[in-house]
Amino acid sequence: MALPGSLNRYLLLMAQEHLEFRLPEIKSLLSVFGGQFTNSQETYGKSPFWILNIPSEDIARNLMKRTVCAKSIFELWGHGKSPEELYTSLKSYPVEKMVPYLHSDSTYKIKIHTFNKTLTQEEKVKRIDALEFLPFQGKVNLKKPQHVFSILEDYGLDPNSIPKDPHNIYFGRWIADGQRELIESYSVKKRHFIGNTSMDAGLSFIMTNHAKVKENDLVFDPFVGTGGLLIASAHFGAYVCGTDIDYNTVHGLGKASRKNQKWRGPDENIRANLRQYGLEKFYLDVLVSDASKPSWRKGTYFDAIITDPPYGIRESTRRSGSQKEIPKGIEKCPESHVPVSLSYHLSDMFFDLLNFAAETLVLGGRLVYWLPVYTPEYTEEMVPWHPCLRLISNCEQKLSSHTARRLITMEKVKEFENRDKYSHLLSDHFLPYQGHNSFREKYFSGVTKRIAKEEKCSHE
């Protein structure tokens, strides 16, 4: 691993959305490809410019083949708070590292990228001309250059207070772009089969990256819905499967979720979604099954479990059962028994999920799931805990002024034992999260109050 201050430095240009999700994504992907973060690299905050120490250019390229949070990566040749500092930094960069890209047989161009400010063409040309001291010997080619260099200027985060001079200036050789185009090409708007809660494409890929999904992994979604998370995992070469309690969703039957369409067509199903993207070979199957009563034989199967459980807002939280209390000790129902749908408390759902992950994930496998929270009452102690799983990251996405959901990433660090199944009852985390069983009521009480407030304002 390159140490801070060494010459294996890269500049990462980040997208300015899902800010909390960016660092866990980059850290997860670097660990997949053999890199890691140093402590000094964890203070980026909201800035789009991150300086990383990465062992090799190959790792940098592999990182960009996966990330949807980063736009581009550059080999950093110089950095300063002012033009003079940048030029001094560039003059101290080893010439032997520059020469392979500047020799007379090469072609190149220099681009200008500014954040939070627009420059005139005259200002851009002036900045490029100021780099004449660099030993460029090749020819300029603006259409198809062999090498692209960039000057990147950071004018801060406040669009209402743009400084005259940049806070930081960077110069580097462009290495690769990230996978931002996946957000558009996999957009739910273009997808063959969708539901009321189909996961946004960008977030699906972020979840897959947090889970460190790799080629030939086996990925499972216990609340599979229309399979959006399976699609993202299959895109990166994983074999995918899932379950859902909703028969109609699994079989693509019933009313359509798409506007101006009443019923689902004969080929609207999860398999068709993967076929749409050329990923059908990675599709194993989906089953109608109850997440509270897993039908899996004991064992470790999955490299990752990635899921978006229902919160009781647009999709109900349900489990199968009987209206009558089933006596203890009776596990099997008569063949004639038809299970009915019962409510499924959020706290029970998440502890069942954690237990299932602890039992079925391989050691080092990851569980990535969404946890809905009522913001005024939320504390970190409310995140469900399990002795076999270590919390890796916890990122917030706001849903409303008073509600949010948190993307929780956990890694299996210990083999499951029977005594671990009920250890959450001894945890301090259990009682606080039970209060979130009423998340639906709190969510809609806030909506009702907001509507009443808006109506009051409109009548005044």
Automatic annotation (TrEMBL):
GO cellular component: cytoplasm; tRNA (m2G10) methyltransferase complex
Coiled coil: none
Ribosomal RNA large subunit methyltransferase K/L-like methyltransferase domain sequence ranges: 190-320
Broad class of where this protein is predominantly found: cytoplasm
Localization per Swiss-Prot or TrEMBL: Cytoplasm
Pfam family, one: Tmrp11_N
Domain tRNA (guanine(10)-N(2))-methyltransferase TRMT11 N-terminal: 9-180
InterPro entries cross-referenced by the UniProt entry: DNA_methylase_N6_adenine_CS (IPR002052), RlmKL-like_Mtase (IPR000241), SAM-dependent_MTases_sf (IPR029063), TRMT11 (IPR016691), TRMT11_N (IPR059073)
Reactions catalysed, as given in the entry: guanosine(10) in tRNA + S-adenosyl-L-methionine = N(2)-methylguanosine(10) in tRNA + S-adenosyl-L-homocysteine + H(+)
Record EC number: 2.1.1.214
Alphabetical GO biological process terms: methylation; tRNA processing
Alphabetized GO MF terms: tRNA (guanine(10)-N2)-methyltransferase activity; tRNA binding
CDD domains reported in the protein's UniProt record: AdoMet_MTases
Keywords, sorted A to Z: Cytoplasm, Methyltransferase, RNA-binding, S-adenosyl-L-methionine, Transferase, tRNA processing, tRNA-binding
Protein function: Catalytic subunit of the TRMT11-TRM112 methyltransferase complex, that specifically mediates the S-adenosyl-L-methionine-dependent N(2)-methylation of guanosine nucleotide at position 10 (m2G10) in tRNAs. This is one of the major tRNA (guanine-N(2))-methyltransferases.
Subunit text: Part of the heterodimeric TRMT11-TRM112 methyltransferase complex; this complex forms an active tRNA methyltransferase, where TRMT112 acts as an activator of the catalytic subunit TRMT11.
Annotated family: Belongs to the class I-like SAM-binding methyltransferase superfamily. TRM11 methyltransferase family.
Name the UniProt record assigns to this protein: tRNA (guanine(10)-N(2))-methyltransferase TRMT11
